[in-house]
Amino acid sequence: METYLTEEERLEALQRWWKENRQSLILGVLLGVALIIGWNMWQGNVRSQNEQASNLYLQMLKASETKQTEPAIKLGERVIATYPSSAYADYARLLLAKLKVDSNDLPGAKAVLEETLAKTKDENFKHIARLRLAQVMLASGETGPALSLLEPLTAEQMGKFAGLYQELKGDLYAAANRPDEARRAYEAAKEFGEASPLLELKLNDLPAAPKPAGS
Amino acid sequence: MLQAIRDRAQGIFAWVMLILVGVPFALWGIQNYLDSGKEQPLAVVGDRDIFEREVNQAYQQSLANLVGLAEVDDRQLKHEALERLIREEIIAQNAEVKDLAVSDSAVRDFIQTLPYFQTEGKFDKEKYNIMLSSQGLSSAQFVAQVRRALLMEQYQRGLLDSAFVTPNQIASLFRLRNQEREVEYLKIPLKKSARTISDAEIEDYYRKHLQAYQNPERVSIEYIAVRLDDIAKETQVTEDDLRNLYEEQKSGFASEERRKVSHILVAVDSEGGEAAEQAALAKINQIQDRLAKGEDFAKVAKETSDDPISAQNGGDLGFITKGAMEQNFADAAFALKQGELSKPVKTSFGYHLIKVTELSPAKVKPFEEVKDELLKTFQRNAAENKFYEQGQTLTELSYEHPDSLEPAAKALNLKIESTGYFTREAGDGIAAESTVRAAVFSEDVLNGRNSDPVELGSEKAVVLRIKDHQPASDKPLAEVKEDIVGKLRAEDARQETRKQAEELLRQAQQGAPLTGLAKEHGMQVSKESNLRRDEKNVSPVLTNAVFKAARPSAEQPVISTVELENGDQVVFKLIAVKDGASQGDPKEADAARQFLAKNAAQREFSSFVAQLRELADVYVKPEAEN
Fold first, then answer.
1. Nearest-neighbour CA in chain B from A54: distance (Å)
2. B109-158 pLDDT, tens digit each
3. Which residues of A are less than 8 Å from B106 in CB distance?
4. pLDDT of residue B241
5. What is the model's pLDDT at position A73?
6. Secondary structure (3-state) at B52
7. Do B551 and A139 touch (CB under 8 A)?
8. Is the CB of A160 inside 8 Å of chain B's CB atoms?
9. Is the model's pLDDT at B365 over the cut of 50?
10. Nearest Cα residue in chain A from B556
């Protein structure tokens, strides 16, 4: 390592160092400043994008609330097209599915929910989308495909949605004329609490169970 | 390397480096010292701490909502408050992660629609500032709170508002709810049993059910009570004391001067400028002339006054005090003699002519009139100090002599009072107070010691001890024999009825028709072709059992028994299930849709939040758990 003997030598070394490095230093500082400004602008841009998406979505909610189905659907489609990667696209899709169900367009609702299931990055949203999708499929008589959507889920995957899943599975089995499986699913749903007001009625509506052996 | 740093650690350059490096380190350290006294959070959600005071606030809110309802479990309520805060925080953080946003203008619009900040339906900036500062909030803080609330609302509505109900679900609701079932049944009335029951059997039952045959634990107590009222009554008061108090409180007994006035108003149009002013003045002068000519004031007022309410009463405003009116009006009114008419007086309403119709001068209630009131006040004030002192003495002496109330009673010159027997659950007199009973049945007191002082309201303090304690005891067999015989016979009767029902059920299941069985045993078969869930004429227990039974099929008839509330047994055969029409009228269908959608939305959302909670990074302090 170098050692400096006097103050002058040190000063000189400093000046020399400055001469050699000032260009890269200034460049570095400028680059840093540019980065900070760029980052801030980017952030601001993201925020304002989100705010715009939010405003559009709120308009959609309002239209849906006041039963203006057509405009609400249009607004929803605009949210999805304009801000495809924001969370509002997911929200818009869910609401769109509801609007379609309410106007008796089950295939349309199904398509939207399938899209939600495929596109959303939020696991919990996937659960909601899957449950609603299976409900729509049940309504349009596609019990088989709906069951194959739900059956592969393990208890762990279902998590806190298990009660809802099991009851829906019960409905599907009952519709597919598989009463024993339906009963098992309903019983399972009962154990998770939060049962729907109809669960007990549905359970009692099933045909008699085969006599258990030995009684 | 270190050598090099040391070598260079000289001169200005080195010092600058040292300071630059050193400052953050120094401050880093300080923060730790400052932090050490801070309260520990009850729970941590992600990077946000939840403190006890927040939980208490939330708890107070739910308590306020529950006022007047059944007794609430404090711990439970507090735990729920904490859980609610955790859930809210999880939702808020999740909304943030999702980049949900609320624009400034949306926040502003929302705030401006809040009625608290409005005067006459319009946003009032001043009111807004006053309201916020009264809450100790800055505008920025409040806006942040509103923004957060709106974000959470968006988050919730995204799930709740999009929940739907398929036509299929509505149809199945109607199908199930309006279902009718065809059933035939025979009723086996509860048998009577007159069997003689052996003493051994009775004793056996008695031994097995001793719990049910207990005299409850009872106590009687003796106690000393310090009562504010008693102390007050004994307090000696001299005439001088009262006179002094009277002088002190004189202003409280004084009434202000009041005058009954009538007026005539000529309003001035505030936008009319000088011309309107002149017109009004001319008009009031005219009125004044008419009155001067002797016209009746009341009549003129009715005709001309612009104050419609008083005009109807001939201008009468009733009694007024000086402070209640506008300065000019008050000055004029209180300068007049009774019956005298003022000159035109200008106020912000316009011009007035004022007449005083009655005087009620200021006066102070004389000492004699308020003497009783003063006596009470004086005694109470004096007694409060003494009450406090006596309470202290009572506490000290009953603590120093835990085995007797005598010393305290002697020192305070109070009687030792006593009660009759009472239980943990109920008592009379002083034992009617649950705080008293709680004190009596505490471990120390049951062990023969004096209780701690029990305050009953702010005016009574009690120290008590056990006089007699009767532990719970078994009721003697002789006393309960009748009861046991009755119970055993009832049980017999039920058993017998049940046995017959099982026998009939077995036969029916083997194919015997119910009508045949009924005839054989002299019973009746009843039939309901269209039993509904809400049928009124059939026992609800039976209806319930019929609707709980599985659907019958050709190869598998459904026959079962059920015991009614009165012990009668019913054997029933479910013949057919008739589904309800799957479509109600549109109005009903709409109500059903709303009901189901709301229900589905809530269940989905609570599962959603529960799942978030499950996966979130939440730490709850062990003692706050449960």
1. 6
2. 888 888 878 887 788 888 888 888 877 778 888 888 888 888 888 888 99
3. 51, 54-55, 58
4. 83
5. 92
6. helix
7. no
8. yes
9. yes
10. A208
Q: Which of A86, A97, A127 sits opposite B162 (nearest CB)?
A: A97
Helix, strand, or coil here: B76? Answer: helix
User: Would the CB atoms of B166 and A101 count as touching at under 8 Å?
Assistant: yes
DSSP line for B14-28 = HHHHHHHHHHHHHHH
- The residue of chain B nearest to residue A2, with distances taken between CA atoms, is B4
Instruction: Report the pLDDT value the prediction gives residue B11, as an integer from 0 to 100.
Output: 62
Cβ-Cβ contacts under 8 Å for B622 (sequence gap 6 or more) = none
Beta-carbon separation of B553 and A47 below 8 A: no
Residue A11 at interface with chain B, using a CB cutoff of 8 Å:
no
* Two structure tokens written together for B184: 């035939």
Q: How confident is the model at residue B58 (pLDDT cuts 50, 70, 90)?
A: confident
Which two three-digit tokens encode residue A106? 């089950």
For residue B49, the tally of other CB atoms under 10 A from its CB is: 16
Instruction: Give A213→chain B minimum CA distance, Å.
Output: 15
Q: Of residues A166 and B195, which shows the higher confidence score?
A: A166
Task: Establish whether this prediction's ipTM goes over 0.85.
Answer: no
Tokens representing A210 are: 């085969």
Site of tokens 């495929």: A118
Contacts of B577 in chain A (CB under 8 A): 205
Beta-bridge partners for B441: none
Q: Does the beta-carbon distance from B163 to A95 stay under 8 Å? A: no
If you write DSSP's letter for every residue of B361-419 in order, what string do you get? Answer: --EE--HHHHHHHHHHHHHHHHHHHHHHHHHHHHHHHHHHSTT-SHHHHHHHT-PPEE-
Nearest to B422 by CA among B410, B413, B431, B430: B431
CA distance B467 to chain A (A): 52
Asked if A54 lies within 8 A of B154 by C-beta distance, the reply is yes
The helix or strand, by DSSP H or E, that contains position B225, with its residue range, turns out to be strand B218-227
Q: Which tens digit of pLDDT belongs to each residue from B333-353?
A: 888 888 888 888 888 888 888
Phi/psi of residue B133, nearest 5 degrees: -70, -30
Place of tokens 């502003």: B108
Please report which confidence band the pLDDT of residue A215 belongs to, taking 50, 70 and 90 as the band edges: very low
Cβ A160–B614 below 8 Å, yes or no?
A: yes
Closest CA to B380 of B202, B563, B599, B228: B228
Between A46, A95, A197, which is nearest B162 by CB?
A: A95
Q: How many CB atoms lie within 10 A of CB B294?
A: 6
User: Using a CB-CB distance cutoff of 8 angstroms, which residues of chain B are in contact with residue A170?
Assistant: none
pLDDT at A134: 95
Arithmetic mean of pLDDT over chain B: 84
DSSP letter (8 states) at residue A205:
T
Residue of B102, B103, B610 with shortest CB distance to A160? B610
Global pTM reads 0.61
- Cβ contact A159:B189 at 8 Å: no
Res B21: pLDDT: 67
Q: Which residue has the higher pLDDT, A209 or B498?
A: B498
**Measured between CA atoms, how close is A60 to chain B, in angstroms?**
11
Q: How far is A42 from chain B (nearest CA, A)?
A: 14
pLDDT digits (tens, 9 = 90+) for B394-421: 889 888 988 888 888 898 888 999 999 9
Contact across the interface for A46 and B99, Cβ inside 8 Å: yes
Query: B342 Cβ partners below 8 Å, 6+ apart?
Result: B332, B333, B336, B352, B353, B354, B355
State what percent of residues in chain B have pLDDT above 90. Answer: 7
Kindly report the CA angle at A66 between A65 and A72, in degrees rounded to 5? Answer: 75
Residues written for chain B:
626
